[in-house]
């Protein structure tokens, strides 16, 4: 694996550029969407939240058949069409004025995004050897964070301007970013369909219980996702004496660490055994992070701030280890001819974590305090250890061979 933060030339670099293009647009969208829909469109905040929740719920369901479509019709063509569909869905937000059209646009956006993620994973699997996938995914994660940071800066300019034109400009940039993404994906070699016609009517991922268990455990581990955007900001404001500006500093720390160290953290993850070890280690580190975060309650501002910084460092180390391990497992345990379908299913864990995470974290951290932190860390540790037996069971399925399943899991 290269030591550079830039992936090798060829398909890997093109995939990274495609990731960068749409992540810049997404970063701008994420920081402005809520205020645009409420202040510019005039929707009630509760209805905005409901519409986005419905959209992502639909998207999580649609991701599996769209991933199957990538397997059946070809990953590159499917990814290009879904990138264009995502750009069109973003553009439709520009003309939304009422709740019902907003929900339809949100469903279209989330569905296209979920399908695009699955199709791109299938495309990656077809163009990159199994031994290089986790390393490339680490590069893509670092690229994603860089793009989101740049996009967030652009969105910040729109928020500062506060005008309708500025908000519309952000959505236009996001829409164009997906068109650019589609153009970059067209530069990649085509990947032939991988599902024989006689296999298309099989039970697929929805009947694959061992893989479903892996996905469920990974969903538990992904409950850390809303920590920086919701859990820690609320914790700082409600339970500590630390200054609120620390929220921004911790976000920058997390984003910068992933950009610089994610590739290095993923370097030792090359198979099922190393992947489960990485996930198990991340469980212990996450437990330590939760315990340190809990120490910030009731302390002086300086002590609380120090504890929060240490906890954030531990949390991002756990995040990078868990990400590298889960990427490897999600590919190695999927049948080679159904990568898109399986990646679409595995990706539902992100949607579920984003949907349920705010409620879970608000209850655990804000209402329960220190016991809630310890419960979150304990649940993460249990799920990380359960990943080993679950992986052994999934790897032992003789009837559905997949790359890497013959590897013994520690």
From TrEMBL:
Domain of life of the native organism: Bacteria
Membrane-spanning segments: 48-67, 79-96, 136-159, 165-189, 242-263, 284-304, 368-387
InterPro entries from the UniProt entry: MFS, MFS_trans_sf, MFS_Transporters
Main location per the UniProt record: membrane
Membrane topology of the entry: Multi-pass membrane protein
Keyword Signal in annotation: no
GO cellular-component term (any): plasma membrane
An example molecular function term from Gene Ontology annotations: transmembrane transporter activity
Keywords: Cell membrane, Membrane, Transmembrane, Transmembrane helix, Transport
Subcellular location field: Cell membrane
SUPFAM superfamilies, A to Z: MFS general substrate transporter
PANTHER family registered for this protein in UniProt: MULTIDRUG RESISTANCE PROTEIN MDTH, RESISTANCE PROTEIN MDTM, PUTATIVE-RELATED-RELATED
Name of the molecule in the record: MFS transporter
């Amino acid at each position: 694996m290269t030591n550079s933060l830039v992936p090798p030339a060829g398909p890997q670099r093109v995939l990274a550029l495609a990731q960068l293009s749409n992540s810049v647009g997404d970063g701008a969208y994420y920081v402005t969407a809520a205020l645009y829909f409420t202040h510019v469109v005039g929707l009630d905040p509760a209805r905005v939240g409901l519409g986005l929740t419905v959209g992502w719920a639909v998207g999580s369901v649609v991701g599996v058949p769209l991933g199957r479509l990538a397997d059946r019709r070809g990953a590159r063509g499917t990814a290009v069409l879904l990138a264009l569909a995502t750009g069109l869905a973003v553009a439709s937000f520009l003309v939304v004025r009422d709740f019902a059209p907003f929900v339809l646009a949100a469903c279209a956006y989330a569905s296209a995004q979920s399908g695009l993620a699955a199709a791109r994973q299938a495309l990656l699997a077809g163009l990159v050897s199994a031994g290089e996938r986790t390393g490339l995914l680490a590069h893509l994660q670092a690229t994603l964070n860089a793009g989101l940071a740049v996009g967030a800066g652009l969105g910040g300019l729109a928020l500062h301007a506060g005008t309708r034109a500025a908000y519309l400009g952000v959505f236009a940039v996001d829409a164009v970013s997906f068109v650019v993404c589609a153009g970059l994906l067209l530069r990649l070699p085509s990947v032939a369909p991988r599902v024989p016609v006689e296999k298309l009517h099989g039970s697929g991922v929805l009947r694959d219980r061992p893989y479903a268990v892996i996905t469920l455990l990974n969903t538990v581990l992904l409950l850390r996702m809303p920590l920086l955007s919701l859990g820690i900001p609320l914790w700082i404001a409600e339970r500590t004496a630390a200054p609120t500006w620390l929220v921004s500093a911790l976000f920058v720390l997390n984003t910068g660490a992933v950009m610089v160290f994610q590739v290095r953290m993923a370097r030792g993850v090359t198979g099922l055994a190393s992947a489960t070890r990485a996930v198990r280690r991340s469980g212990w580190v996450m437990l330590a992070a939760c315990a340190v975060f809990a120490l910030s309650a009731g302390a002086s501002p300086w002590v609380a701030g120090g504890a929060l910084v240490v906890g954030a460092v531990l949390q991002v180390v756990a995040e990078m280890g868990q990400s590298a391990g889960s990427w490897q497992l999600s590919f190695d345990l999927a049948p080679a001819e159904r990568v898109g379908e399986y990646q679409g299913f595995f990706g539902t864990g992100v949607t579920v974590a984003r949907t349920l995470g705010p409620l879970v974290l608000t209850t655990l951290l804000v209402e329960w305090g220190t016991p809630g932190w310890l419960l979150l860390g304990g649940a993460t540790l249990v799920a990380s250890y359960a990943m080993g037996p679950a992986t052994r069971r999934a790897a032992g399925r003789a009837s559905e061979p997949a790359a890497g399943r013959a590897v013994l899991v520690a």
